[in-house]
């Protein structure tokens, strides 16, 4: 093909998205591609290799595209850099066979298989007919995943035992929700009567496949990996941290930064705690007091509606003052998460045509009483002005970027860094003047600092600093990490357990909140210095949110130029 006819980087990136959707209909469903609704991906080693082959072919096409006239424009350059960084990072993880030991309490292939049903269209009988076919595909998807784990056992590539045990418990809950039927059967019960027989049969087959995977994980896989380490070591950690953060981190510097934030936040929390419970001793005594005596929302439906109102209020107050929001971006829904997942709230982005809006999800963990202090800044993070404003804005401006930048090319630390920046922004703007809400915000910030400390510390077995109030001079272990986290968090024991298993499941991901926030703050400060008194925060926000995804390699530089 001649250079004049070869595609530019954005065209290469969008062709990659088309190829990815063909191989991974779960991605297609999240993007709103209706044709994906009746299929599931090949999760076997062959399926994993097909994805890697697509990435390699795309990188080769990108080499050609970057030599084409016009490839050096800002929009093409930014897209090319993101595409190369993302695919290279993904291939490094694939080539290290991480997919053959992908076990944990979230974001594994079985979690993705289950969760995609919650966003699959369910409005019409045709939608449910597609769901029947997707339910029938569950056994093959879980069998392919199991084949990958079996190959990992052959190659002595073991998952961590503790996340494996948690995953077995989750599978048991998916297989039996307590009424003699599984999660898929509960889900299918909402379908139309005209398809009742097909839905029930397909759902029973999906549940049987979950039970079969549970039994194999419990009886074969877990005993085979007994005694394997729960942590990954420096080399694996560096590779995974690159994937989640979009940069090669100085892990020792990041660890030291986590401690610096810990000390800063602890001092601020002590001051705020005095306003709530003078003489409390520690901020967490004051937070425990709020668990019993602070403001609460009673009821699951009530907390869902209250969170919806919180996001609606934030949109009304921020739009036109600190953001300029298009009408589709103003729509976001509060939902309750399906049981059997991790304890942390999460967000799902809108479909590309906004027919499915962005949604926040609250795992209730069986509770029906919810402290307000623990919710406000979290929903500024998950909803508005956090994940929703960023990811929905990417969707809205996708035509000015590339489909890749606005969707599947996301870098975790960019998005999580923005969401943590959003919490801080709301504090800066005075939305957290109430002492309960502000202490809850600081507690949430402290949790993100703790993540940097314990995630890096335990996986690299680093030494706890001499000025630490906790086991100075000792080396981190998962047991010490859980004790430290629990002693510096308002969250209940089951939440702390879920968090620690999460860090063992996804090494290098949890540090991106604080490190990403640092990048966003530094980029804003550099832009402010550049513009001086002419700096316009609203204009900067909208320009920053309209760039699409960027790795931390790129983020500070690009934000500084806005």
UniProtKB/TrEMBL annotation:
Entry-linked InterPro entries: DUF885 (IPR010281)
Superkingdom field: Bacteria
Pfam families the UniProt entry points to: DUF885
PANTHER family: DUF885 DOMAIN-CONTAINING PROTEIN, GLR0591 PROTEIN
Protein name according to UniProt: DUF885 domain-containing protein
Species: Streptomyces actuosus
């Amino acid at each position: 093909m001649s250079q004049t006819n070869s595609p530019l980087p954005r065209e290469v990136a969008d062709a990659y998205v088309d190829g990815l959707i063909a191989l991974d209909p779960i991605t297609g469903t999240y993007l709103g591609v209706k044709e994906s609704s009746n299929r599931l991906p090949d999760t076997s080693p062959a399926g994993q290799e097909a994805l890697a082959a697509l990435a390699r072919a795309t990188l080769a096409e990108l080499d050609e595209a970057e030599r084409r006239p016009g490839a050096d424009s800002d929009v093409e350059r930014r897209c090319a850099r993101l595409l190369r960084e993302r695919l290279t990072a993904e291939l490094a993880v694939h080539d290290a066979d991480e997919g053959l030991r992908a076990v944990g309490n979230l974001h594994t292939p079985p979690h993705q298989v289950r969760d995609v049903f919650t966003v699959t269209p369910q409005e019409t009988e045709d939608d449910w007919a597609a769901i029947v076919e997707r339910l029938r595909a569950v056994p093959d998807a879980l069998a392919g995943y199991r084949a990958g784990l079996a190959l990992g056992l052959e190659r002595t590539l073991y998952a961590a035992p503790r996340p494996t045990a948690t995953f077995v418990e989750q599978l048991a809950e998916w297989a039996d929700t307590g009424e003699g039927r599984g999660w898929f059967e509960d889900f299918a019960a909402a379908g139309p009567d005209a398809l009742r027989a097909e839905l029930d049969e397909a759902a029973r087959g999906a549940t049987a496949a979950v039970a079969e995977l549970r039994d194999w994980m419990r009886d074969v896989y877990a005993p085979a990996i007994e005694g394997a380490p729960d942590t990954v070591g420096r080399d694996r950690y560096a590779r995974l941290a690159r994937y989640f953060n979009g940069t090669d981190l100085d892990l020792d510097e990041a660890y030291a930064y986590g401690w610096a934030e810990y000390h800063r936040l602890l001092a601020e929390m002590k001051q705020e705690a005095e306003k709530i419970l003078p003489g409390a001793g520690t901020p967490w005594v004051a937070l425990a007091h709020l668990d019993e005596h602070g403001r609460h929302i009673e009821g699951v439906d009530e907390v869902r509606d209250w969170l919806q109102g919180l996001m609606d209020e934030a949109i009304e107050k921020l739009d036109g003052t600190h953001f300029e929001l298009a009408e589709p971006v103003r729509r976001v829904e509060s939902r309750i998460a399906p049981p059997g997942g991790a304890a942390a709230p999460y967000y799902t982005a809108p479909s590309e045509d906004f027919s499915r809006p962005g949604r926040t999800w609250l795992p209730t963990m069986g509770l029906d009483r919810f402290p307000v202090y623990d919710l406000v800044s979290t929903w500024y993070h998950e909803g508005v002005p956090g994940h929703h404003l960023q990811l929905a804005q990417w969707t809205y401006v996708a035509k000015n970027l590339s489909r890749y930048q606005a969707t599947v090319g996301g870098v975790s630390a960019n998005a999580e860094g923005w969401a943590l920046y959003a919490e801080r922004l709301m504090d800066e703007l005075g939305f957290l003047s109430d002492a309960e809400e502000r202490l809850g915000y600081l507690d949430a910030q402290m949790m993100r600092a703790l993540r940097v400390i314990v995630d890096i510390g335990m996986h690299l077995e680093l030494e706890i600093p001499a000025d630490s109030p906790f086991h100075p001079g000792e080396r981190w272990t998962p047991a010490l990490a859980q004790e430290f986290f629990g002693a510096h968090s308002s969250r209940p024991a089951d939440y702390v357990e879920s968090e620690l298993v999460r860090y063992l499941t996804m090494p290098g991901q949890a540090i991106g909140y604080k490190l990403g926030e640092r990048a966003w703050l530094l980029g804003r400060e550099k832009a402010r210095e550049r513009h001086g008194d002419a700096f316009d925060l609203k204009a900067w926000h909208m320009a920053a949110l309209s760039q699409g995804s960027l790795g931390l390699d790129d983020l500070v530089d690009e934000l500084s130029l806005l």
